[in-house]
Design brief:
The chain has 225 residues and is α+β, with helices and mostly antiparallel strands. It has helices at residues 3-6, 30-46, 72-92, 114-124, 126-129, 143-149, 152-155, 169-173, 179-191, 198-208; strands at residues 13-19, 49-56, 60-67, 106-110. A four-stranded antiparallel sheet has the order 2-3-1-4, with helices on both faces.
């Protein structure tokens, strides 16, 4: 089985991230964010993939996804990035001007326990960490705002979490996250490394053909997001 297929198995939750080419701001006005949300919603309807959490930042986005069928994540992401790129260029009258994204998206699987909560907290804290808002739930272009203030129709975009958040989750997401958690997530992003306890990471890396991600950990970038 090719590595790209091994790393796309049903009922495993994945964190997915992609950045704009040269880190240019591709989400500046409300229309830009809304257009991406529309594409994300369409992708969810077309493919058997649940959207558990997300955050759209000015030059990148994070998605936490759960494919329900083998190979569905790759198809979901290919359609999402291609469609968004085409529509963005058409709207901004820049067709033929070059790549919108810096390359193929990066992803890693996450264990469905406290590591999942740590990851969602990290993703939904992005705007607060970047000092774009005073409270994480004020960022309109993420799943936290959607769960707190979205309409019933808007909330249909989001699937159920594998474990429920604690009653103090909102306070938790607005509190500085331990550096050890942030570093482990940024390393997982940089290396496409599974995120979880040691036994789960070893087993999952072997199953998905990601054992190379466990070697030479290096240091995550301090300005990563």
């Amino acid at each position: 089985m090719p590595r790209s297929q091994r790393a796309d198995i049903a009922n495993i939750i994945y964190h997915v991230i992609n950045r704009s080419n040269a880190r240019m701001a591709i989400f500046e006005k409300a229309q830009d964010f809304l257009a991406f949300l529309e594409v994300l919603s369409e992708a969810r309807e077309k493919f058997l993939v649940e959207v558990l959490a997300f955050c759209i930042m000015p030059n990148h986005w994070h998605l936490i996804l759960k494919p329900l069928k083998y190979g569905e994540l790759s198809k979901f992401m290919a359609w999402l990035t291609m469609t968004h790129t085409q529509r963005w260029h058409a709207f901004h009258h820049t067709v033929g001007s070059g790549h919108l994204y810096q390359g193929r998206y990066k992803s890693f699987p996450v264990q469905t326990d406290e590591y999942f909560i740590q990851l969602v907290r990290y993703v939904e804290r992005n705007p607060l960490r970047a000092k774009l808002v005073k409270s994480a739930e004020d960022w309109k272009w993420g799943s936290l705002w959607l769960r707190q203030q979205g309409t019933l129709q808007q909330k249909q975009l989001l699937g159920s979490w594998p474990i429920p958040p604690s009653k103090n989750y909102l306070k938790l997401v607005n509190t500085v996250q331990p550096i050890a958690e942030v570093d482990s997530i940024r390393t997982a992003i940089a290396k496409n490394r599974p995120l979880g306890d040691d036994r789960w990471v070893q087993r999952t890396a072997k199953t998905l053909g990601l054992t190379s991600s466990l070697r030479n950990p290096g240091r995550p970038r301090k300005n990563g997001s």
